[in-house]
Amino acid sequence: MSEFVQPEEQHVQANTSATQQVIVHRTAQYGQKAAGFWIRFWAYTVDILILASIGMLLIKPIFRLFSLELNNPVWYAPFTIITAVIFYAYFVLMTKFCNQTVGKMIFGIRVISKDGEKLKWSNVIFREWIGRLICVIPLNIPYIVVAFTPKKQGVHDFIADTLVVHEAVYDLSEKVKYESSAAKELQEPNVF
Predict the structure, then answer these.
(1) Buried residues in 157-185 as b, exposed as e (16+ CB within 10 A)
(2) Residue 173, SS3 per DSSP
(3) Bridge partners, residue 64, by sequence
């Protein structure tokens, strides 16, 4: 996760006793803001519309052209397998090569690794294939976890150690460190 650190400000505050002072170090840090539930929901909705359009405009006409059955209710029907492959390939390939799908591009959010490194194939496959399979099967209910976690992570984000962040929005956090002059004197080595 990218962070911008501003230089420290030092403030010296006098304590009630005249012999002890407290030094306050304040550091401003800017970190990328996590994308919340609703923006991720709308980005996912755009992605589903794109995938449904691909199915309607490309796959169904090919099946009708060759007089293949479209309404087979079993999960291993050719139409179901092809649409599932396209679904998972879309999410895996777009996330690996662009760090975002078309829906995420439209809303200005992207997937990053928790440790700030480039996304690895293992992270992407665990997030977009295994994690999505876990989230999609029980009626998309595990996606709601995003609304209640501090870093707005879903189950699939926890599995792959990823975050979804805004591209151009940053959070300001202030790091405060207190130091007393008496404690500083105790930490200095004695030289005889």
Answers:
(1) bebbebbbbbeeeeeeeeeeeeeeeeeee
(2) strand
(3) none
Averaged pLDDT for residues 59-70: 85
Comparing 68-77, 131-140, 142-151, the range with the smallest average pLDDT is 68-77
DSSP string, 22-45: EEEEEEEEEEEEEP-HHHHHHHHH
Q: Are 173 and 33 within 8 A, CB to CB?
A: no
> Is residue 168 within 8 Å of residue 16, measured between CB atoms?
no
Token couple for 173? 């956090």
List the structure tokens of 68.
């293949």
Kindly list the distances between the CA atom of residue 141 and the CA atoms of 47, 134, 136, 145, in Å, as whole numbers in the listed order: 18, 10, 8, 8
Beta strands in the chain, from DSSP E residues, in sequence order:
3-5, 9-14, 21-34, 109-113, 162-180
Query: pTM of this prediction?
Result: 0.73
CA 72 to each of CA 15, 20, 78, 120: distance values in angstroms, whole numbers, following the listed order: 79, 81, 9, 37
Six-digit token pair at 55?
């199915």
- Yes or no: say if 170 and 32 are a contact pair by the CB < 8 Å rule: yes
Identify the pLDDT of residue 77.
83
- Local structure of residue 10 (DSSP, 8 states): E
